[in-house]
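Lab manual, section 2.4: Encoding a predicted structure.

Procedure: take the sequence of the chain (672 residues), apply the prediction step described in section 2.3, and record the output as structure tokens. A sample record is shown.
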Amino acid sequence: MNKKQKSLIIVESPAKAKTISRFLDSNYQVEASYGHIRDLPKSTLGIDTENDFQPKYIIPKNKQKQVTKLKKTTAKSSELILATDEDREGEAIAWHLKEVLISKDFNLPVKRIAFHEITQTAIENALKNPREINENLVLAQQARRILDRLVGYNLSPFLWKKVFKGLSAGRVQSVALRIIVDKENERNQFKPEEYWTIVANFLSSKKEIFQSELYKINNKNLEKFSIKNKEEAEKITNNLKLADFSIKDITEKIIKKTPPPPFITSTLQQEASKKLHFSAKQTMMLAQKLYEGVDFGKGSIGLITYMRTDSVILSNEALKKAEEIILEKFGKNYYQQRQYKNKSRLAQEAHEAIRPTDPQIFPKELKGKIDEKLYKLYNLIWQRFIASQMTDLQIKKLIVDIEGKTPKENYDFKTIGSQIYFDGFSKIYPVQLQENLIPKLFKNEKILLNNLSALQHFTEPPVLYSEASLIKKLEEYGIGRPSTYATIISILLERRYVEKDENRHFITTEIGLLVDSILRNNFPQIVDIGFTAKIEEDLDKIAEGKKNWIQVIREFYEPFKNNLDEKYNQVEKTNLQEETNEICEKCGAKMIIKYGKYGKFLACSNFPECKNTKSLNNKKSLGIVCPKCHQGEIIIKKTKKGRIFYGCSRWPECDFASWTKPKDENLLDSEE
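Recorded output:
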């Protein structure tokens, strides 16, 4: 007797399969595809540029065993249900699965289901409402993949031939590199400008001290650079010592600050970077685990909704749960239902923001039961979701105008006091706010000048990009998509085009600057922000069914390929070798400086007969004498994982290393 055939559900990952299995009966079998089962070949371009850019998909060797298993399981099933993620990549995986598992002579019903959270209700609703595969999403994913391949597999060999092997270029990360380089150039070219401010400490009639800043002279507002130097500042302070002061006016108002919307992919990456110091890649990996299922003693449960989304919309069910929690925990004064509007043109109303699947699972319930980083990210998502349905933070502002009169001039100072009037959403989602309490003052009250200071300032250079600010800038320019930001940043770091300094800001390496320079000079469109953003818009239009994918690729590829062919003839090989006076200890020839994947290094000029190479000290010196050998200098180094430490420049002769910055012994001596 044959066993009853089951419905086969295929998802991307085994973790997701395990969680979904918990909600289904024995009529279903859930298997994982382990991501994409087909891709372009690594060894060749894999795109027929003469035949409408048709891709030549293959099943990679590491996927063949799983594909064989899925084929056998499909053959024994009553239907095939494709339950991959509801985005371009997920839709493409579903399409490839159908193409590979269902042949023309194998007539098996195929359904496509999608859900935004892995819960019993969501799975059941999805099974009741299957749909067809969205061909437009598949074509948009395919177009992006082909464009990236055309750029990478054509530009990288150019860099190998004209510079050195090991370099690579990409359609989106090259623009991201340009943005980082531009900011660094802006910072390097920055020239500080001097300006001064005048700050006074006043005594109220009740002898209470408060601070105020000069903002107007003879009814003319002071601009940032109105007081340019010490002489001007001293002239003003000397006059002020002769003035009589009184309270000119007092204005009180309540400033309301609305809660931020629930997370979308980009804002989650930004906040996790700022508040938890997680990289974008780490955030997405952790969010993926929270989405697919985490076991905290109740079996594997999907704790958050789908983490790749541009939508801030919340379901009615989620809104109701938030209301219940806020009313119970904080009271009705803290509750205000809000539905946020999407900024992204492509954000689908049916999609939701990133939120807890069950807000009644409080973060404290998970503390100590799941990985600490998973807990921290869940806690951040939970707090942001609950806060989005709470009342405004109200800040009481007290603006005090102070008038100072001399026989010839009038001076106006301003003091702004601030304090939290009602904490609102900040009760659960803290915001950076510095309260400034000032004494009770009255209009026309006579006050005394207690102390006067002329403060010198210099304009600050632009701040280099962090992961959070780079993601924000990419989003602002329309470059890449939230689901690709983590990959873009990871590639730049892995290829060592950029590094992170001690403040977690991006700095470009010599290799990064070199690649950026070559691309700017020879392939300006590839690193053009507007051009890259236009391609992203075209990909979006393909996804909407408003543009033909072949036309989009052709419009990009033909001028790109023509320019590439010209540059092969025009651009001469870059000679990056530098002569040194160092002698090779193995053969006696001179050593030269060469470039490699990890930057500059010393190599024997007698290569290939002599293959001697040595590292070159490129590390940043702190000007501190090594406390161990007292000969070398302390330099900043990095581990393979990117963690900064301090070591001796004479390594390996001296093995001094420390996680903390050593003290300068000479400086200590001079202070004594």
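Check your result against the sample. DSSP finds 18 helices and 25 strands in the chain.
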